[in-house]
Amino acid sequence: METMAYSKGPWWTIPENFCLPLVFYMEEDQEERIFGHLDADLHHLEVHSHTLIQLEGWFTATGQTRVTVVGPLEARQWLFLMIWSMESWDPDQQARGLEMLQCVRSQLLTKDDLEAAPSIQLYSTALSLLVRMGRTVHPRLCQASPY
Predict the structure, then answer these.
(1) Which site among 18, 47, 54, 98 is 20 to 30 Å from 39 CA-CA?
(2) SS3 (DSSP) at 25
(3) Where is it found, in Gene Ontology cellular component terms (predicted)?
(4) Cβ distance 92 to 106 under 8 Å?
């Protein structure tokens, strides 16, 4: 299994990895599901995905959390796809998201992992555009409504 390697040095030493962070909102219960009770799994997800993830609770009626992710673009896209899939209404997408979550919780993401997620190619252009535009992205807003 090939590990992620960056020829320019560790990911946190590359300024481009901090430009235009991915920012989106998630529900409090989804935060706990992904990052664990009191965000106990947050550090593992950061280390395994080669990213820095900041969680900020917002005082809203639904208790949303603002999520900011910096790191290599491919890793940010992969994490967003994982979260987007988990919040999908489609059971197959949810299962894929849970698989991705188990993967990133248990091991370092590899280039193979990043390339094996077929939907990343479908959504990366739209996600990149939203990130470049400085838009905040909520996974529920990115999918088609079932109605």
Answers:
(1) 18
(2) strand
(3) cytoplasm
(4) no
